[in-house]
Amino acid sequence: MADRGGHGGPAFLAKRALARAIGVASRRSGRGGGTTLPGRVLLRLEPEAIARLGARLTGGATIVSATNGKTTTAGMIAAILAAEGRPPVHNRAGSNMTWGVATALLEQRGSEGLFEVDEAWLPRVAEQLTPRLIVLGNLFRDQLDRYGEMEALAEEWAKAVVAAPAGTGLALNADDPLIADLGRDPDTERPRDGVLYFGIEDHSQALPELQHAFDAKHCRRCGHPYAYEVAFVGHLGHYSCPNCGAQRPRPEVAATRIELRGMEGSTTTVRVPGGEIEVELPLPGLYNVYNALAAIAAGLRLGVDADRIAAALRGMRAAFGRVETIPIGDGRVSILLIKNPAGANEVLRTLAQEGEVDLWIGLNDRIADGRDVSWIWDADFEVLAGAVRRVTCAGTRAPEMALRLKYAGWPEESIAVVPGIETALDAAVAASPGRLFALPTYTALLELRKLLADRGLAKEFWR
Ligand SMILES: [Zn+2]
């Protein structure tokens, strides 16, 4: 009776019912944090629950992982599938551990699954779900105290890819050498069956020089450092190995012409198999172009027509909340999450296109942020040194943030330190009558959202 792939016998049905009931009770009692409680309970009762429930997805499951952008990418794929009349079972932003996946499977109905999965949990979730498609965006240095070296993570991912059944589709970033290599069949040295690569080919978007956050990447075949022709975001770019000759694979989904329009978004011409599409994104920055390329590759692999994909992306709003603008007082606050050097660099680079800016930076060092905040010294705050009118530093590590900004050459008289999130926000808003850009780390973002929600400020997502 304990068939792993089946819907489960009576015992499993009872466990499922109990976990659901606990979810309902938890929501009724109005306690926060109840959102993934049913999944936690179910996994405690039945460790194989994801495999059992996942087997009901007759249209298969797609898994999305990356250090940066997985929520946005998954949101884009969800919009593409919805436009196709195939709304997926989809875990919500941030609920990207096993219990988030289990909760979505428990509480939503649908024939297709789409799961954003935390980097460290990818192998376990992939093993349970036997996905139809795995979408991998990038591996950046992030919260080292939690995960250890990203090369070790790449090894784990490689094992997960090898363990996946033949025929599992892969959408891989050709511009991240650690990711791209996962699509190589080590026996034949050719791309595996079912791999679709995406990447950027517009050299006008190259970084003038390698950034602080650039970690030298070593060839996964021979260990020699890669040589870079261009880099676009952190270590994402065009590389080759001078020792063994390993090359960046040529992507079939490629951004050939990119026009960035600061905070407003971008227009990108994308080469796809058999043609070209024009992609209008309502989200800023080159990092979101990468997210869109991942979503386009995924959509194509899932059988969606290229023109319909373009329409879905155009019609999308930032409903998944990585960037949102909220009216407050006479002005507005635009929120951009920062959590690691590469992601922060993209935010800083986008802000640098805005002219003079007012900022609020919330740096926390709680567990979900990573206790070690030394990463701020690897982010290029220098690029905004000449463009900041005023910055308010908040959060548990506000003084260290202020110190970092002084070293980055930001004028000392423009920097204020106000550790309390609420007082700091009010001070920053009072000092910035127009638009304020708020750059919180993860838990500072949660505090900020709660604060704004408590004040009844309607969320107006960015257009
Ligand atoms: Zn090599």
Can you summarize this structure?
The chain has helices spanning 10-28, 37-45, 49-54, 70-83, 98-107, 122-129, 144-147, 150-163, 177-180, 286-301, 306-314, 341-351, 398-407, 421-431, 442-454; strands at residues 61-65, 89-90, 113-116, 133-136, 169-173, 195-200, 227-233, 236-240, 253-260, 266-272, 275-281, 323-328, 331-336, 357-362, 388-394, 415-417, 435-440, 460-461. The protein is α/β, with parallel strands linked by helices and 463 residues long.
Please, could you describe this protein's structure?
There is one protein chain. With 463 residues, the chain is an alpha/beta fold. The protein has 15 helices and 18 strands. The strands form three sheets. The protein has a nine-stranded mixed sheet with strand order 2-3-1-4-5-6-9-10-11, sandwiched between helices. A seven-stranded mixed sheet has the order 16-15-14-17-13-12-18, sandwiched between helices. It starts with 9 loop residues before the first helix and ends with a strand. The relative contact order is 0.10. The model is unreliable at 1-6 and 458-463 (pLDDT under 50). Bound molecules: zinc ion. The site of zinc ion (ZN) has 8 residues, from loops.
- Please report which band the strand proportion falls in: under 5%, 5-15%, 15-25%, 25-35%, 35-45% or over 45%: 15-25%
Q: Which percent range fits the helix content?
A: 25-40%
Low-confidence stretches: 1-6, 458-463
Residue-averaged pLDDT: 87
Largest sheet descriptor: 9 strands, mixed
By helix and strand content, what is the structural category? alpha/beta
